[in-house]
Amino acid sequence: MCGRFVVRSSPEEIRRLLGYEDTPNFPPRYNVAPTQPIAIVRIDRGKRRFALTRWGLIPSWVKDPKQFALLINARAEGITQKASYRAAMQRRRCLVPADGFYEWQKTPGGKRPFYIHARGAGPMAFAGLWETWMDATGGEIDTAAIVTCPANAMLAPIHDRMPVVLAPEKYDAWLDTENVDAAAASALLKPAPEDMLQAYEISTRVNSVKNEGAELVEPAVAGDRR
Q1: Whole-model pTM?
Q2: How is the chain split into domains, by residue range?
């Protein structure tokens, strides 16, 4: 799964990678958590556009979000058949910019947090889905989920799932809901290449969503379990 992630690259670096027309300014975030606003890139009138959504997808047919489970991750397996994601897979696919993500390894002594990022650093993009939910008064909210797949061999000793990291040459196909149907898009949902990412243990300070800052991604030192 992907329950927390990091966006530390500059707005211009992310804009260069994802090729959207907008020029938003936003600060680095080191502990992005569910229900918080997250950036996505989607197609609007034939062009890539930047947007902010709530992390936690709500399908359009949901009547009461309070009675519906928070969908922060969408499993790639069978995604085209699942009621919660079927429409979004066909019409509302997006990219979620990130520099890395956190996973927790289960051990006899407790869960150990790890930071996973691209070798050489720099931003990347997760496959995502978005939806617009409307309440009874006509109020709208855009929401999104990150697509996950089985972990690759590098990450498997830490966790059995990982976000789908799309290569830049796959962005067009993933975003093109007019010409690439859900079945073809689902073929892009594969684990990252073994040599793309690297991981290292960090402090348990990341466990609290109240903690923020670059120190969260610093490697753990001996005895640092705070």
Answers
A1: 0.95
A2: 5-100+122-195
* Beta strands, E only, the chain: 5-7, 29-32, 37-44, 47-55, 73-75, 93-98, 100-107, 110-118, 124-134, 140-150, 161-163, 165-166, 197-201
Catalytic residue status for 94: no
Report domain 5-100+122-195's class: alpha beta
Q: What is the mean pLDDT of each run of 10 residues along the chain (226 residues)?
A: 93 97 95 97 96 96 89 96 96 98 94 94 95 88 97 96 98 97 97 95 96 96 60
| Catalytic residue (one of 2, 94, 131, 149) | 2
Q: Which of 12, 13, 94, 103 is an active site residue?
A: 103
Residue 103 designated active-site: yes
